[in-house]
Specification:
Elements (H helix, E strand, L loop, with lengths): L1 E5 L10 E6 L4 H12 L2 H8 L7 E4 L8 E6 L8 H15 L6 E5 L7 H15 L18 E5 L5 H25 L7 H15 L2 E5 L1 H6 L3 H7 L7 E7 L10 E5 L1 E5 L20 H15 L6 E10 L11 E3 L5 E3 L7 H12 L6 E6 L3 H7 L3 E6 L5 H15 L2 E4 L17 E2 L7 H12 L4 E5 L5 E2 L9 E2 L4 H12 L7
Parallel strand pairs: 1-6, 2-4, 2-5, 5-6, 9-11, 9-14, 10-11, 13-17, 14-18, 15-16
Antiparallel strand pairs: 3-4, 7-8, 8-11, 12-13, 15-18, 19-20
The structure holds ligand BES, manganese (II) ion and zinc ion.
Length: 500
């Protein structure tokens, strides 16, 4: 999809469809103005459209080059947020989809959300709602996506242009993550997935280097190797580096993504329905990390960022690791494995301890880590935990704010030191499971043991995948985390926030 800006008169727009988002406060007046310029169809439309947020109405005016207009309700002006704009654009995309239109114009609404953010949100909502995964369809794949979105605004609207452009880049990154998650497991073995990462890095402009099994062995990544033991395919460990010349930080931000390309549970085998049947999504954290690199590189965010992606499948093959195995991890810690299905923390721990060699200013991991996260927060909100230090409250405030703006919402879980006791082992330094209570938190505590400080853990088990259609997210991989991390990193790079 291409995105451009125009300030032509509405009558002169040569597009298949013009989308007009309107609040309840604006509806009457705007429809009168439209009627003056484009004809009485808009006067009649005002009988059926008042701007409520569940309304859409198609209008076929006479005096215009555009074939049709679509009015979309935004609800009450005071309630308009970036997220409600995304959802409004998504409703427009849903109405538009069956029409097979190629070019649309979107009029910039007059709302309290600043113009730049409003344009970003509308473009994101429209593009993400239009997403369809068709790689394996041999029929029904004729779906023609919209080719061009023209943002219609006032003359000299440079701010709107930047927001619309950012919306396009972010939406494309989210769709890239969705594509990787939706891919069939046999098409994304660790090696094939790493090839994709290399392609993405080359196109967007960041470094990608892929370690094969022999390097992983030299580095003594015992956790990653243990999980891989039941597998026929070798593991990979991918290192990402984005270091622009104008970076505001000397020590890198590190992003670690869980790259379990398929999680059967291993010998602690998962049941199929509503469990193993969507475990191709267990590399959703890795997808979020690579796609965030894509977004920040394309947006030229002035930050030095490193990424680490440990990748393997988790299977009960011939020599698979077993409950009772004691594994020596990358940092030398010994871990008693009591459930082979707690594999994510095994591979992430090695990546986190390797990250220490970079002396990062901040380390974040994104992972589809625990079923408890889904039970606690559901499918739309991720869990965040962070090192309890003097900056942790501000850090969580900023993450939550980035979540609200981006639409990838997060909620904080407590992270007291005492939770770690649940991981005490009789035979080794730690167990890999902490029991039923506070399962997401003990998983986070396990990771914290290996991570550099300060550390943020983001569990996306629920929101990484959706089993039902949600606003601008079809069934399947959601690309959750890309918008959150991109927005958060943009904030870290902004001059006002780099006080330290
Ligand atoms: N990949 C799963 C977590 C998961 C569950 C992701 C549901 C998405 C939806 C993870 O590897 C796992 O199996 N976790 C176990 C840990 C337990 C054995 C301590 C879990 O949460 O059941
Ligand atoms: Mn598992
Ligand atoms: Zn898993």
């Amino acid at each position: 999809m291409k995105v451009s800006i125009t300030s032509l008169d509405l009558t002169d727009l040569d597009v298949d469809l013009v989308i007009v988002p309107l609040t309840e406060q604006q509806a009457t007046e705007s429809l009168n103005t439209l009627a003056d310029d484009l004809g009485p169809a808009f006067t009649r439309a005002s009988d059926d459209f008042s701007g409520k947020d569940d309304q859409t109405l198609i209008v076929y005016p006479e005096n215009t080059r555009a074939r049709r207009f679509l009015l979309v309700g935004l609800g009450m002006a005071d309630d308009v947020t970036m997220e409600s704009l995304r959802e409004a654009a998504a409703r427009a995309a849903d109405v538009t989809a069956p029409m097979g239109v190629e070019t649309i114009a979107l009029t910039t609404p007059r709302v309290s959300v600043d113009l730049d953010s409003a344009c970003q949100a509308l473009v994101e909502g429209f593009m993400l709602a239009s997403y369809k995964y068709l790689d394996y369809k041999t029929t029904g794949g004729e779906h023609r996506p919209v080719e061009r979105i023209v943002m219609h605004g006032d003359k000299n609207d440079t701010v709107g242009r930047r927001g619309a452009e950012r919306g396009r880049i972010v939406a494309e990154a989210v769709m890239l993550a969705r594509d990787l998650v939706n891919k069939s497991p046999h098409d994304k073995t660790p090696t094939l997935l790493a090839r994709e990462f290399e392609k993405i890095g080359k196109k967007a402009g960041f470094e990608v280097s892929v370690w094969d099994k022999s390097v992983i062995e030299e580095e003594k990544m015992g956790g990653l190797l243990a999980v891989n033991k039941g597998s026929v395919d070798p593991p990979t460990f991918t290192v990402l580096e984005y270091k622009p010349e104008n970076a505001v930080n000397d020590r890198p931000i590190v992003l670690v993504g869980k790259g379990i390309v398929f999680d059967t549970g291993g010998l602690s085998l998962k049941p199929t329905k509503d469990s193993m049947d969507h475990m191709k999504a267990d590399m959703g954290g890795a997808a979020a990390v690579i796609a965030t690199f894509d977004a920040i590189a394309r947006l030229s965010v002035p930050l030095y960022v490193m990424g680490f992606i440990p990748a393997t499948d988790n299977r009960p093959g011939g020599n698979a690791y077993v409950p009772g195995d004691v594994v020596t991890m990358h940092d030398g810690t010994t871990v008693e494995v009591l459930n082979t299905d707690a594999e994510g923390r095994m591979v992430l721990a090695d990546a986190l301890s390797y990250a220490k060699t970079y002396n990062p200013m901040l380390t974040l991991d994104v992972a589809t880590l625990t079923g408890s996260q889904v039970i606690a927060l559901g499918g739309r909100v991720a869990a965040v935990m962070t090192t309890p230090d003097s900056d942790s409250v501000a850090r969580l405030d900023e993450l939550e704010a980035a979540g609200l703006r981006s639409g990838d919402m997060v909620a904080r879980l407590p992270f007291h030191a005492f939770y770690k006791k649940q991981l005490d082992s009789e035979v080794a330094d730690m167990k890999n499971v902490g029991g039923r209570e506070a399962g997401s938190i003990t998983a986070g505590k396990f990771l914290e043991h290996f991570a550099p400080t300060p550390f943020v853990h983001i569990d996306i088990a629920g929101p990484g995948w959706t089993p039902k259609k949600m606003p601008y997210r079809p069934i399947g991989g959601t690309g959750f985390g890309v918008r959150l991390l991109t927005e958060y990193l943009r904030g870290l790079a902004a001059p006002k926030k780099t006080k330290k």
